[in-house]
Amino acid sequence: MSWLRALKETARSGLSIERRRLEPLIAIRGAAGLALVIGTSLAFFGPVVAASSAFGAFQAAIATFQRSWRPRPVLALVSGASLAVSTFLGYLTGSRLPLFLALLVLWTFVAGLAWAAGPTAGIIAASNVAIMLVTVTLPTSVANSAVHAAMILFGGLVQAALIVLFPVRRWGAQRDALADALAAEADYARRLRHDPLAPFDPVPLMTARSAAAVTPRQARRRPPELRGPRGVAERIRPVLASLADPSLGVPSEGPERERVRELLAAAGSVLDSAARAIRHGDPVELAPSAVAALKTPDTGTLLTGPPLRAADRLGALLSDVIETAEGEGTKEQDASDRSRAAEAAEAIKATSGGTPAAPHRRRPTLLRLVPVVLKEMRAELRPGSPILRHAVRVSIVAAVGYLIGTALPFGHGYWAPMAAVMVMRPEFSQTYARSVARFGGTIVGVALATAIVQTTSPGVTTAAMLSVLCALLMYLLMRTGYVVGQACVSAYVVFLLGMAGDNWSQTVLERVVLTLAGGLLAMISYALYPAWETPRLRGRLGDWLKADGRYAASVVDQYAEPAARGHDDVRSALLDTREARVAWQEALATAQHEPVRNRGLSRAAADDTQHALAQLGRAAMLLEAHLPGGGATPVPDAAHLAEALRRATEQGAKAVRERRVPDWAEVREALAEWDARQRPDEGEADPFVREGAHLLLEALEEFSRGLDGKPKPDANPPGEQAL
Fold this sequence. Notes:
This protein is an all-alpha fold. It has 3 domains: 3-169 and 367-528, no CATH class; 172-221 and 223-349, no CATH class; 534-708, Methane Monooxygenase Hydroxylase, Chain G, domain 1. Helices cover 72% and strands 0% of the residues. The protein has 29 helices and no strands. Helix 2 packs antiparallel against helix 7 and helix 24 (537-560) packs antiparallel against helix 25. It is globular, with a radius of gyration of 29 Å. It is found in: Cell membrane. Pfam families: FUSC_2. Residues 401-524 form the Integral membrane bound transporter domain. The chain crosses the membrane at residues 44-62, 74-93, 99-116, 149-168, 391-415, 435-453, 460-477, 483-500, 512-532.
């Protein structure tokens, strides 16, 4: 993509406005906390301290809107405390330019490295630096600085207290994540009725897994209905695919296929009912037709072998979904509702038996998280790290922007570095899109605020009320688009600084010009010191191949010695391959917007290879759906094939990174030996495993053909299947 086209795409992305579900109660709660803090500060300390405390309350509320699974009061407290420390250190050095610049560079560098801990930490850290640049100009002494820092912390405490006293949808984010995962499974089941090879996006399952991790305190308070369905949904996923698959399951047409379609439709209905119950905390209401389809004895007469095993496991898993989704919420429903749900679960379970509940995932407390975050930040201090490059860029731009703002005759030189710090991200497209959006939002916000000021000449109280109104709009509309949020923020800062005694006329031209300067600095810095994803695409593809190979090998290995192996290594390998797949897709999406020429991986090769790896994962998933129990008959040849898969994919990943085409001779030889040892006159009790192994080899060979640019032998390849 050329630079001109890349700039057009990022500008269009930054200025886009989306229709999102609004959360007015949460927005009102945040604005009420801000109003309470401003009112208290005005009554006891005056408008200057009120401005500082308002920034603390404003930032604490914004922190609670970030995508994080930690309790919202904790986010507000962390935001308020970290901002108070940042601003107090800035106060102490603000009168000495060299010392303040050194602190600014160090603090901004650390904020850039904070992205290693995740987007939430990176955004909060960047916001702290940006707000510090404004608040350090307000106090006049060390004592006043301590008061300002204390009031900033007070703003965070107020927001945290309001969240505790006036909760809005307790565990709402976790409920939505789990419900989305079950709804995605339901949609997948329905699509499999018409397309047995329908694709599936694992992101909802990955999100639900992240949401399921809890601290010890959260584990004691978590609703029972949030404790089990995620693990069941994870196990349903391969069972659904195995039941619908035509290569290792029932024929494409016939009475068996019709029965499978009925089971898939019933599974979709049950999963949808569970998703609705969990999302809203209501009882599970099952459709009688779905229950009848799942418990009918006709399944055993129509299906045999792997399809019958898949149908039995599906019934057991769905019964577990019903039971866990009911939770303790059934105490509020009448006896007839409880009995109907219980009878349905027992009727479904009667066909195959239940499954054990998995222990909950543990999330470290904040104190235990500190060494983990420090370790992740230290790991990014290496050449070629995108996070390190971002930290270097943002720290240099902050210092240069502050010097430029100070040298210009406008005054209030912090606008330039503040704008740069707020828009800069480790990724090119986000940095450029946010730069354009911030400039556009600044023009709109400052113009509207200026028009109001010039026509009304508001006093301190009126300015405070207008700033709270702008904050309310910000909280309400911030998810609709960055440009909308920046318009509200710009007007908020104009009113707030005017309340603190700033000259109204100084917030018009200087904000626009200095914001433009900060945005341009951010964009220029990325052009001069980039961290492109395009050159790393082969590495991401190799990581996905290696993870897929480990997953396939772990699954095949289970058939070799069922009694001696557990399923933990399969689960671990599955999670690794999902993360590698998402990392590849995110890198590919990012690279498509970068003004960088292709380096060794064409768009066609990227499409073909990712399709092949999806097929490799799908074949392994079909085998996982029928993992043998401890008393199953061992398959000795599977061990040799698993080791060949593991070694070959590791070597293949290295070949991909070195721009070579992988060779799968070792896998072919292992599978050929297995075929040779299977005498035609003896047959196999269950040829399912060896047939699945051939699918694995076909996917690997398709990967090499796609990487080499050779045409596919099959003009109509099967649809892509994600894990």
